[in-house]
Every structure is written in structure tokens, then in C-alpha cells.
Design brief:
2 copies of one chain form a homodimer. The first copy, chain A, has 508 residues and is an alpha/beta fold. Chain A has helices at 11-25, 39-48, 57-71, 92-102, 115-131, 137-140, 154-170, 179-182, 184-190, 207-214, 235-247, 270-280, 369-404, 438-451, 484-507; strands spanning 148-151, 195-201, 222-225, 250-258, 284-287, 312-316, 328-332, 408-411, 418-423, 458-462, 470-476.
């Protein structure tokens, strides 16, 4: 074979491609924040540009990839304030190009000599940030120690934490029957349990339902404790749930507290929950997928007080830390604990080796950790913390603005960079949101959210802020380029859309 | 904030960075296939270049990323023939740069308008390749249909397949007790089962042990049927295993056949296993992580005959299809079946929506599917198939060469691009490998594999080729630039290393 067209990296080729591409992506503000395109337009493009497999790279870019890209949301736009993904720091595409050219597989040292070690290095750094104890160099690279396990996303990180918790509790010395070997049912029975439960709050991430199903306790094995009006897990509710598990002889695999609920950004009382878990001997997991980034903030780091008592912490570097997607981790307080999920094989992942795949729910995977390392080395913890402080200040500023504008009602009080509010149709402005007008206000939320084109906010349905459910706008502020002007423009657009909708309702 | 340093993509910046980077990575052959560096050298570099977070991009590249890269294996070298990752097609780094700049999250249409649709489009193409039935356009994008679920790797794809199989069997109408809601134990009991099992062969991937542990049947719930000398799962062994499960009232969640065993490349008798599974009403999963690529081959596609009867198929695009790491899929014959693992939430992944996260073990994740789309559009199925045909021909050629050289013994007969052999020390050349000399030959394998510097092969331990275990070399041919000369050079190097070791053993 060895034909030119199949050869990797013809020397003169790559430079030209990257130069062509850099021209295409170096004007990131050219795209709108969102397009009005329909699913059909995208599907038609996909079908029309679908060829027999003989395009050259330039045609692929021109006819398929860049047109598809033009349909995507523009995260670089200051008015993209909708979800937990932010604009990329300027150096990320270049690092991605290097990563993909090297294509190191961090499952084992025999396919990644250095990035496997980088992963241990960065995991130990994260461990130090959260547990505030420096780790000596020889311990960082010690194969018997696991400070963190990187995963593609928060769901897999939460799953890994629950797996760890399950095996720690149910492979223990109380019985020779081991969960890892003999299965959940036998391990529970041999220890006198009649079932197993996971406890989280009603604002817990939907990944917990997936995990409850996958690990075999079923969705009904997930107990969702109610939250108070601030979105925090009820402590009496948690105590009652634990008592009920004890009474029913259900093992509690883990209590999952939230540090930055996806819908509201609320942070559970980590100190109190940690104390309760310690007293009860329950694995304390903190889903800090979004909020863990607060650890870098000088002004707001104390919001995470108590996280240092967690057994495991989920952090998504692709959320508030603004790394590319595909980079989460579960950080593990006890570096020996991951031995309970260890598996090995003969051809790779050899027992006793430094192979990362020994202790991971995933196998082969890319060295995405480089993105986080670059962020920590180039921007650094201080600047990352300043970004977060800026976004939180901007969020509080937006909350103030909303409070002063009669067309809106703030829902809850923002803890971090997430904020909820509703538009009030004119005739609701005297009473504000009530059980009587909640359906109408919810309909306005949905219509305005879908029609808003110059900005992008998301929406959700909240049921803990009153004794009824209501659809609310959900703003997530991550972009350091977003300022008060962009937010004012968004509010003005929403007021205009609301007025048009009101007029249209009136006419009908 | 809006400070210049935090702004994403300063227009003049990115072009310069990509230009700098392209200069750094456009000479991919400059690095050796592997380095003699020790773990300590890498760790020292990591510690020495670890700063307070104030590096600029150029310094980061110069002081940290490129030195780390220089320690990595060079997959572009024709003599890297060790593992199941190949050199990247020339356009991949450019596509990666675009992907990371866009940072689309394919978990839902509200964060990825077009790449979520691209994922459906490519999943339907893969479905057509494997199940050989064209899918009408309106069905491709129908949210109620799921032709495939993309995952970071083969482990997650296998896990998703087992999850599907579990819920299909144990959420069925035989009982109101549902596995997804009430848990594995209750669902089994209500259907008259006393336990659950997964059946695979003794060459099954180690991910199956992880999955058995995670889903709660325990590693002992994984039955590993013996293989014959060719590496194929024993059919009488499989029948006996199923009978034993029936006798013990154990539910069989799935039979997992291999299409390209990781250690040997052997392919199970998919036709017969599929017939057996159909007769017994058992979910038939094919782990074709590596071997699924044969579907593109005109000459060897028939090796996969019977795969079209699988309920689910795991395929890793980052293996024989030479896409970047992080891109696997489980392809699902019945597009309605994934409803059994569906979860939704209020803020995203809305019920009935086209959101991909509704039916996936993963949540937020990158649009890695673009890499496979590019491969299919630019190189195309025909050229991909020719690559595979070339590599298989080269493998068979290498087998011939090994047979004719007295210093080596071929172990097994290669089915596809994986080949096993051993070095025979001089005094073993008359008898070949025997139970008496297997420990010595294994020691030679280990030492030669670790010492070989101009090429990189891997090794494994096989126990099915004789009535004893032996460590063997494992060659995986994926690089279209690899030719007979590179392989001859590798064999010569191994002979030289073997002679040095023999002399050294003699001297001791």
C-alpha cells in the first residue's frame, strides 16, 4: 500500500491544512449566538453533502464541516448564557491538534508513557486543592495510589464514585461474600441487608437515575430528599431518610450532596451532611461537577466548606473551568480506596503496574487531561478564580437588575453563576408569581426562551420554590466577555418578546 | 472583567498559534517509535516545569507539552505495531482544532444543533453497514429511534449493550416488577430467576469483568467459555453453559461473542452463536471493537458473517478505523430497543425530544463523531477497506516469514491484523515450544519485548494454544506505511536481542 493518500502526515500537507483551518476559525464572532434553522435544514445538508467517500479535505470543510458548524451555538458570543459550557481559551484548538496528532491512549503506560503520568500529576493537584494536604512527589506517581480517576463526563465520574462506595461497603471483612465477585444481592444478604439505597436531593442530577438503574438498585432505590426554598437538601429530611433505611435494613451506598445543582446552582450544607455521614459511616460523595471550580475562588471558596470531608468528589473541567468537553474526574480522598474496583488483564493493565485502566470504569481513552494542565499552567488557579469571581459578581448584579425591573421576577437567590427568573405578563405584575398564574407564566417562559434569537438562555421547571411547579429561565454565566450590557440587551429582548406575545394572546 | 488575556479567540492570536503548532507537529517522523526514558525522567520534567500558572502558550508548548510529547510512542512510525491505535489520517488535527473551538455538547439539541443530527446520521450509516438494510431519511432523525449510541470507548459501549439487554429481559411484561425501577434482585425474583449471568469466551475483554461488577452480578456472574486452539468460543461449551444457567434458574443477560479478540484477533463463529441465541431467546452481543472494521473490506468482510443477527454490536472507531481516541459506539439492531434505558429530566434531555442524552450511559460529551464522518467522507468505505485488506495481507506475509525463520515459532494462525509468535532460544529450535521450555520462552518474550527499541510490539499471555500458558509477542498491523521491510527489521532486531540474552544467560 504505502500510497501517498493514506500516508499519515505528509510533511507539507498538515501545515497547509492547519493554516486553512485557522483562517476559518479565527473569527469566532462571525457566527450568530444561535440560528433559526430548522432540523430539516440540517438534515437536508447532511443528506445533500453525503458522498461516496471521495471528498478531499478542503471540500469536506467547505461542503460539510463548516456549514454544520455554522448551525451550532456560538459559545464565544457574550450572549450565550444558556448552559454549562463556556468559550474556549484561545490556546485550546492548538493543544487539541497536538493531542490528536499524538493520539496517546492513557489506559496504560505502554500506550502513553508521559500523559499517564501527567494524569497522576494533575489528579494529585486537584486532590491537594480539595483536601488541602500536599502530596509528596513519590506518592503522586505511586501505582498503588489513586488520587483521582478521569472520565469523559460527570455521569461516568458519579458512576465511578458509586462503584467505589458500593465495593468499599460490600466487599468488607464482615463477610466472605464479596459484591465485586458474588454480586450485589448476595453481598447485601450476607451482611444482613434487605436492599440498597442511594440518597441525594430532589435537585440531584438525572445521571443518578441512570446509575441507580445500571448498578441494579433500580430508580426506586434512589431516594431524593426534598430541598428547602434555597435549593439545599433538607437535613431533617436526610436524617429521616437514613433512619428509614436503617429501619428497613437497607444499605446506604452513598449520600450524594450537590455543590452547584444543575438547575439552580445551589450548594448543599456540606459541613452538616459530612458530619452526618461520618457519624453514620456512610460514603459521602459531593457532585461538584459545576461548583467544584469555586475552590479556585478567593472570594467564594468558602461556599465549599466541608467538601474536604467528602470521600469522593465529581468535578467537570469542561464546565466552569472552561476546558473542552470530555474531561471530568472523580477525586478520591483515600488514595488506597480505588483498589476495591481494580481489575487487571494479561495483555495490558497488568496487576501492580502504573496502568490507569486498572482502576477506571473506562478503558482506552484520550489524554484530555492535557487541556486541564494547560489551563492550570497558562491561566493558573489565580486567574481562573478571578474569572469565577467576576461571573458571580455579574450574576448578583443581574439579580439586582431583575429585582428592579417590574417585567421580571427573580426566583430564588443565586449562590453562584446560575440564576433563575420569570417574565411577568402585564396583568401579573401586581401579584407576582402565584399558583393561579403559574401555568401562564410557564407558557411565557417556554415561548420567550424558544423565540429569543440574539441571546441564548435555557429553562427548567422548578417545584421547590413554591407549592407548585413553574418553568423558569436559567442563566449560566461563564464567559468572561459577557458584561452587564449584554445582559441588559437580553432582558430588553425578552420584554419585547413578552409584549408581542401578550398582544398576540389578546388578539386571539 | 473582559480583560484581553481571558478573552476567547483574539482574532490575530489563534492563527499564530496554529501556525506555530503546525510547525511543531508537521514532522511527525522526527520522534523515535519509543524512548528509553524512565518514569523518573518524565516525573522530573513534570515537577520541574510545574509553575504557578503564569506561563504563556509558547512557553507551555516549549517547556511542557512538546517535551512530554517527545516521551510518547510515535504511532506514525512504521515500526509501531504494538497496540490497537494507529497513526492519524493527515486531516485529523485540523478537524480536532475546529471541534474544540466549537465545543458542541451532543448530549442535547439545545447545546448541539447540528452535530447531534450528524451523530444520528453516522449511527444510521453504521447500522446499514452491519445490518445491511437501508434506513429511510425520516427514520434516521426520528427521536423515537436509536440506531447507535456513541461512547468514549469500547468498555462503555459494552456496558451500554449489557444495560439494554438487562432491561429488555427484566423490564418485560412477565411481571410488574421492573429491573429499571425496582432493581435487579427484585426483577429476577419476580420472574422466577435465582441469579443472572453473562456468557463470553475466555478471550473476552477485561471490560466484561468491570461491567459484571458494576451491574451487580459480580465477576463470578461472568461465565467464560473455553476457546479452541484457534481462539474461537467452544460451541459445546456455550451450549453447556446455557444449559447450566437454565438448570440453576439463572437468567442469561447476554452472550458476548468476539469479532477480533484483543489478544489474538480471533473471531467467534458468529453464525452458530447467533442461531443458538435466537433459539434460546438470549440477547446476542458482538464485541467487534477491533474487528468490526472488517465490514468495510471487500476481501475479508465474510469473516463477520452472522454479525447481522446480533442484537447489539460494539465498534471502536479509534481502533482499526484509525479515528482519534474517544470514539466508540454500540450499534443496535432494533431502533426501538433503547427506549428501555431512557431517562429524562426537566432542564434538558426532555422526554420525547431529539436529545441524545435520553438514551446513553454518558451525559455531556464532545462531538467526536465528526472524526468518523470525516473518515467516511474523505477516505471512504472503499479506501478504508483497502487499508484493512493491505494490513491483513501484510499480517499473513509476516506469518509466512516467521514460519520460515528457525528463530521464531508462530502461535496460532492470524485471522486478521493481529499475530502472535515467540522467539525460540537456540536450544529450543529442535523441539519448538513445549511445556518444559515454556517458562524460559516466556522470559525471552518479556525481555525482548521490553528491550526492543527500534520497533514496538506488545505481548500477552496465552493459555489456549497448548495445555500450558506462554508469553507471546502480539503484533497489531494498522499503519498503511508499515511494509515487509519494517517487519524484517523488527525480526532481525529480535534475533539479535535474543542472541545477546542467550549469551548473557550462558555467562551467568
Amino acid at each position: 500500500m504505502k500510497s501517498e493518500s493514506l500516508a499519515p502526515f505528509p510533511a507539507t500537507h498538515l501545515g497547509n491544512e492547519l493554516r486553512a483551518l485557522s483562517a476559518a476559525i479565527e473569527s469566532p464572532h462571525a457566527r450568530p449566538v444561535r440560528t433559526a434553522s430548522t432540523a430539516h435544514e440540517i438534515e437536508d445538508l447532511l443528506e445533500a453533502s453525503n458522498g461516496p467517500g471521495t471528498m478531499d479535505f478542503e471540500s469536506y470543510m467547505e461542503r460539510r464541516l463548516l456549514p454544520l458548524t455554522n448551525f451550532e451555538f456560538n459559545l464565544n458570543d457574550a450572549r450565550y448564557i444558556g448552559h454549562m459550557t463556556g468559550p474556549m481559551p484561545h490556546y485550546m484548538p492548538s493543544i487539541a491538534a497536538n493531542n490528536i496528532a499524538v493520539n496517546a491512549n492513557v489506559v496504560k503506560v505502554e500506550t502513553s508513557n508521559s500523559f499517564t503520568r501527567l494524569e497522576r500529576h494533575v489528579a494529585a493537584q486537584l486532590h491537594s486543592y480539595f483536601f488541602q494536604a500536599p502530596i509528596p512527589k513519590q506518592a503522586v506517581y505511586d501505582p498503588s495510589k489513586t488520587y483521582g480517576i478521569f472520565t469523559v463526563g460527570g455521569t461516568a465520574a458519579n458512576e465511578t464514585a458509586i462503584w467505589l462506595a458500593k465495593n468499599t461497603l460490600l466487599d468488607d471483612a464482615r463477610s466472605d461474600v464479596k459484591c465485586s465477585l458474588d454480586g450485589l444481592s448476595a453481598a447485601l444478604q450476607s451482611r444482613g441487608y434487605k436492599g440498597a439505597r442511594i440518597i441525594t436531593s430532589s435537585l440531584g442530577h438525572y445521571s443518578m437515575s441512570k446509575i441507580a438503574d445500571i448498578i441494579g438498585i433500580g430508580e426506586r432505590g434512589l431516594i431524593q430528599v426534598s430541598v428547602d426554598a434555597s435549593g439545599q437538601m433538607s437535613l431533617p429530611g436526610l436524617e429521616a431518610a437514613i433512619s428509614e433505611c436503617r429501619r428497613q435494613q437497607h444499605a446506604v451506598l452513598a449520600v450524594v450532596a450537590l455543590a452547584g445543582a444543575t438547575e439552580t446552582g445551589s450548594i448543599d450544607d456540606l459541613k452538616s451532611i459530612g458530619t452526618l455521614c461520618a457519624r453514620e459511616g456512610i460514603h459521602f460523595h459531593v457532585d461538584a461537577a459545576f461548583g467544584g471550580a469555586l475552590r479556585f475562588s478567593a472570594n467564594h471558596g468558602q461556599l465549599l466548606d466541608g467538601i474536604e470531608n467528602a470521600a469522593t468528589i465529581t468535578l467537570c473541567a469542561h464546565k466552569a473551568l472552561r476546558c473542552p468537553l470530555g474531561l471530568s474526574a472523580v477525586i478520591i480522598r483515600d488514595p488506597a480506596q480505588a483498589a476495591t474496583i481494580e481489575k487487571s488483564s494479561r495483555y495490558i493493565i497488568r496487576s501492580g503496574s502504573a496502568d490507569l485502566g486498572r482502576r477506571s470504569a473506562e478503558g482506552s481513552r484520550p489524554a484530555n487531561v492535557v487541556y486541564l494542565d494547560a489551563r492550570l499552567q497558562i491561566d493558573g488557579p489565580k486567574k481562573i478564580g478571578e474569572e469565577i469571581d467576576y461571573s458571580i459578581a455579574l450574576t448578583k448584579n443581574l439579580a439586582q437588575t431583575i429585582v428592579t425591573r417590574p417585567e421580571f421576577q427573580l426566583i430564588g437567590t443565586p449562590t453562584m453563576q446560575v440564576l433563575n427568573y420569570v417574565y411577568l405578563p402585564s396583568h401579573c405584575r401586581h401579584t407576582g408569581l402565584t399558583s393561579e398564574n403559574s401555568a401562564e407564566i410557564s407558557a411565557f417562559t417556554r415561548k420567550i426562551q424558544e423565540s429569543l434569537m440574539r441571546s441564548f438562555v435555557s429553562r427548567t421547571t422548578l417545584s421547590h420554590v413554591a407549592d407548585f411547579s413553574v418553568d423558569v429561565f436559567r442563566v449560566v454565566l461563564l464567559n468572561p466577555e459577557t458584561g452587564p450590557a449584554a445582559l441588559d440587551e437580553m432582558l430588553d429582548d425578552q420584554v419585547n418578546l413578552g409584549a408581542i406575545l401578550e398582544a398576540s394572546n389578546h388578539a386571539n
